[in-house]
Design brief:
The complex is a heterodimer of chains A (115) and B (114).
Chain A lengths: L4 E3 L2 E4 L5 E6 L6 E8 L3 E9 L2 E5 L6 E5 L5 E5 L8 E8 L10 E2 L3 E5 L1
Parallel strand pairs in A: 2-11
Antiparallel strand pairs in A: 1-3, 3-8, 4-5, 4-9, 5-6, 7-8, 9-10, 9-11
Chain B lengths: L2 E5 L2 E5 L4 E8 L3 E9 L5 E6 L6 E3 L2 E6 L4 E6 L8 E12 L2 E6 L3 E6 L1
Parallel strand pairs in B: 2-11
Antiparallel strand pairs in B: 1-3, 3-8, 4-5, 4-9, 6-7, 7-8, 9-10, 9-11
Classes of the chains: A mainly beta (115), B mainly beta (114).
Chain lengths: 115, 114
């Protein structure tokens, strides 16, 4: 079974630009969660999607948004980039049934650098 | 706000040593506690614990949960250099309605030297 894939793996943007990251979950998984990882803050939850609906959202500003498609693939968008958005963005998939996340499997991440 | 605290933040041991990593938590509507190992990029799953007092074991790694005292430990015996990584503890808790979210600790960085 193929693992979670994320594209692109690396991105360099400048302040004020916007960026879209993509995540393809493990086949059969309907839940996709997004996390931001920085050296100072560790892994922080952004949001979770299940069957095209956002089920949960972390404490991030509205510049961070996402969506999920009918094939469970998910995208995350960050608008008006700030220097502090430089981070490793990880997505994770799981079955997500009965509202539980259970065991999440992580993708390799997208390293975003904002200059 | 849900909180997960790991200790120590980092440690250096010699190959063959046994280490114990700690994770304490304060969450509302606990569902499960998970341990992950992160070497370079993607965290890889180690254990999921839902019941108190039942040890989960995989080779040289084992973990146990105490739901009364709100903590978990991860033990690694006969450490090897390949065990060098950041070990993350995460707690799943019911957040809104019937949906859960994971809160991660900041991790314990383990370095195993020859």
């Amino acid at each position: 079974k193929a693992g979670v894939t994320q594209t692109p793996r690396y991105l360099i943007k400048t302040r004020g630009q916007q960026v879209t990251l993509s995540c393809s979950p493990i086949s059969g998984h309907r839940s996709v969660s997004w996390y931001q990882q920085t050296p100072g803050q560790g892994l922080q939850f952004l949001f979770e999607y299940f069957s095209e609906t956002q089920r949960n959202k972390g404490n991030f500003p509205g510049r961070f948004s996402g969506r999920q498609f009918s094939n469970s693939r998910s995208e995350m968008n960050v608008s008006t980039l700030e220097l502090g958005d430089s981070a490793l963005y990880l997505c994770a998939s799981s079955s997500g049934l009965a509202g539980a996340l259970g065991t999440q499997y992580f993708g390799p991440g997208t390293r975003l650098t904002v200059l | 706000e849900d909180k997960v605290v790991q200790s120590p933040l980092s440690l250096v041991v010699h190959e063959g040593d046994t280490v114990t990593l700690n994770c304490s938590y304060e969450v509302t509507n606990f569902r499960s506690l998970l341990w992950y190992k992160q070497e370079k990029k993607a965290p890889t799953f180690l254990f999921m614990l839902t019941s108190s007092g039942i040890e989960k074991k995989s080779g040289r790694l084992s973990s146990i949960l105490d739901k009364k005292e709100l903590f978990s430990i991860l033990n690694i015996t006969a450490t090897q250099t390949g065990d060098s990584a950041v070990y993350l503890c995460a707690v799943e808790a019911l957040n809104t309605g019937t949906a859960s979210k994971l809160t991660f600790g900041t991790g314990t960085r383990l370095q195993v030297t020859l």
